[in-house]
Write a structure and sequence with these properties.
The complex is a heterodimer of chains A (257) and B (296). Chain A has a domain of 107 residues. Chain A is built from eleven helices and five strands; from the N terminus they run H-H-H-H-H-H-H-E-E-H-E-E-H-H-H-E. In chain A, a hairpin with a 2-residue loop joins strand 3 and strand 4. In chain A, helix 4 runs antiparallel to helix 7, helix 6 runs antiparallel to helix 7 and helix 9 packs antiparallel against helix 10. By secondary structure, chain B is an alpha/beta fold. In chain B, the strands form three sheets. Chain B has an eight-stranded parallel β-barrel. A two-stranded antiparallel ribbon of chain B has the order 5-6. Chain B has a two-stranded antiparallel ribbon with strand order 10-11. Chain B is globular, with a radius of gyration of 18 Å. The chains are: A mainly alpha (257), B alpha/beta (296).
Chain lengths: 257, 296
């Protein structure tokens, strides 16, 4: 008789495609093989987790077709099962998995399209945090300004890619014209954010991308500005900051010491 | 306070569920329900879908303004060896504080082994060890939530060789140890009884009637597995005729208990769900009354 701990470890192994022998030995046949009984549970776990991944990565599913997606999902689920019960949080490592998945070797753009879909899904479910009132920045002394750091809205993320992933993504939405996307048409610097009830994506210029990613990483305004000017010597820092305040993108700020 | 189907609903009072049939709230119906506020006595949701921010939780709060809500968890893994997931329990508490549900329920099952969340309500061996583990976890969950919870009987496709206790007897013992209530899923009893060759009426009759605070109804699929008929609890069709008959027996034994229609695969239009709920309401109307607020 297996203790609960050993029994659950054995069933866990069987559910993730491993050897079902140890679990099967604990089960009454009752007219149907224990392995067939375990398979009912395994099938449900695999199909529901595949559905969860399809819901988060619909464009990937469309790009590779459903049968191949199910094959990739099966391999992913076995190697990277969820660690918690909120399935909208499942799949963060799926883009990296696709990058290393040998059958996808020829689809070099696929992992970045998956990263965009993950960012959109994460934006939709990110915690609600109120934006900071821009007027409060007026209280910051001028000499402290360079040392300002900001927390950025939890739904915001950034993605740089050598592939035209935003155009690939848009071309694979329901109702899109379906015009072919030239994979050699150039890379993108994207910002993803929730706006109201929808997740949005837009392209950023090089300077804005450098400023925003540096601030989102917790760099000081001085260091972030230097990063932006490094990629765009004509970068207008004042206008860029005003735009971010207008967009209510900051949830807090502090003067670093 | 007592609430009745179609009666005045208070948005801020989390009283006992009305003894009427609600529906499981599913994403395809949310916009229609918010726009047309149909006469539903209450709705039930899986809290795991509402533990982030954004439109999901905003919609649930909007629904809560019009309807009593029950939180029916699938993620606590009460039967797993080892400690409960403290983060998940804290998130459940935070959601309950925000939504003020009429009722919180979970399952006699497990989903977590070795840090992996296996997305299913997996079966337990029914032993003294299992009873002790589940009782400790139910106690911890009730302490963390500051309320009594209901525990649902799972659908089973197998039984373990070393089980020594019947499922209804284990549930009764759990009630005695923890003070929890029971969510009696009549379809699950029917499915389990068929798959494991037990008598569903005897099962129902072995449950402690006073502890039953909610009943679930759903459809199941009839599958052939190597020439052996197995019933699958897929929540993908109308409630089957023999399950309605078993439900009528349950109402006769438990009284007019709040009931829920669950439908999760091939989800039909809202009207079909409401017709199923209306069919349950006709049986509830013929059932004996229960003590007010018994399972709240």
């Amino acid at each position: 008789m297996a203790a609960l701990r050993e029994l659950q470890a054995a069933i866990g192994t069987a559910m993730l495609g491993g050897d079902a022998g140890a679990a099967a030995r604990e089960i009454e046949p009752d007219g149907l093989a224990p392995e067939a009984r375990l398979e009912i549970y395994r099938h449900h776990i695999l199909t529901t987790l595949t559905s969860a991944l399809e819901a988060t990565f619909p464009v990937i599913c469309r790009l590779v077709d459903r049968r191949f997606f199910a094959y990739a999902a099966d391999t992913y689920v076995r190697a990277h099962p969820p660690t918690g019960p909120c399935l909208f949080e499942y799949g963060d490592s799926f883009p990296d998995f696709l990058a290393a998945f040998p059958p996808c070797r020829d689809l070099a753009y696929l992992p970045d399209v998956a990263r965009l879909e993950w960012a959109l899904s994460a934006a939709l479910h990110a915690p609600d945090v109120d934006a900071v009132d821009p007027a409060r920045l007026a209280d910051v002394a001028a000499e402290d300004m360079p040392r300002l750091t900001f927390a950025v809205d939890r739904s915001v993320s950034f993605l740089a890619s050598p592939w035209p992933v935003e155009r690939i993504w848009r071309a694979n939405q329901d109702g899109a014209a379906g015009d072919p996307v030239d994979l050699a048409s150039g890379g993108v610097r994207l910002e993803v954010r929730r706006a109201g009830d929808v997740a949005t994506v837009r392209s950023l210029a090089a300077g804005d991308y450098a400023l925003r990613t540096a601030l989102a990483r917790g760099n000081t305004l001085e260091d972030a500005a230097a990063a932006a000017l490094g990629v765009d010597p004509h970068f207008d820092l004042t206008a860029a900051l005003h735009a971010m305040l207008d967009e209510r993108i900051f949830t807090s700020f502090a003067v670093s010491t | 306070m007592t609430m009745h189907a179609g009666g005045l609903r208070s948005p801020h009072v989390a009283g006992p569920l009305p003894a009427a049939c609600g529906i499981g709230l599913r994403a395809p119906h949310v916009a229609e329900i918010l726009a047309s506020t149909p006469a539903l006595p209450w709705v039930e949701v899986h809290p795991e879908n509402y533990m982030g921010g954004g439109p999901a939780i905003a919609q649930l709060e909007a629904v809560r303004r019009d309807y009593p809500v029950s939180l029916h968890g699938v993620g606590l893994s009460l039967g797993s060896d080892g400690a409960l997931d403290a983060r998940h329990l804290a998130r459940l508490r935070a959601l309950a504080d925000r939504i003020e549900p009429c009722l919180v329920s979970e399952h006699l099952s497990w989903s977590i082994a070795g840090g992996a969340y296996l997305n299913h309500l997996l079966p337990l061996p029914y032993t003294e060890e299992t009873l002790a583990v589940v009782a400790e976890h139910v106690g911890r969950a009730q302490d963390a939530l500051g309320r009594r919870i209901l525990i649902e009987n799972p659908s089973s496709y197998l039984r373990f060789r070393h089980s020594t206790i019947g499922e209804p007897e284990l549930l009764a013992a759990l009630v005695g140890l923890t003070g929890c209530g029971l969510l009696c899923d009549v379809n699950n009893i029917f499915v389990t009884a068929h798959n494991l060759g037990i008598d569903p009426v005897a099962y129902l009759d072995a449950l402690p009637a006073d502890a039953v605070g909610e009943i679930h109804l759903a459809g199941h699929a009839v599958n052939d597995a190597d020439g052996h008929v197995i019933l699958i609890d897929d929540h993908g069709s109308p409630v089957a005729a023999p399950v309605w008959a078993l439900y009528a027996h349950a109402l006769g034994r438990f009284g007019a208990v709040p009931t829920l229609i669950e439908w999760d695969t091939d989800i039909p239009e809202l009207g079909i769900l409401m017709a199923e709920a209306a069919a349950a309401d006709r049986l509830i109307a013929a059932a004996p009354e229960t003590r007010d607020g018994r399972a709240a």
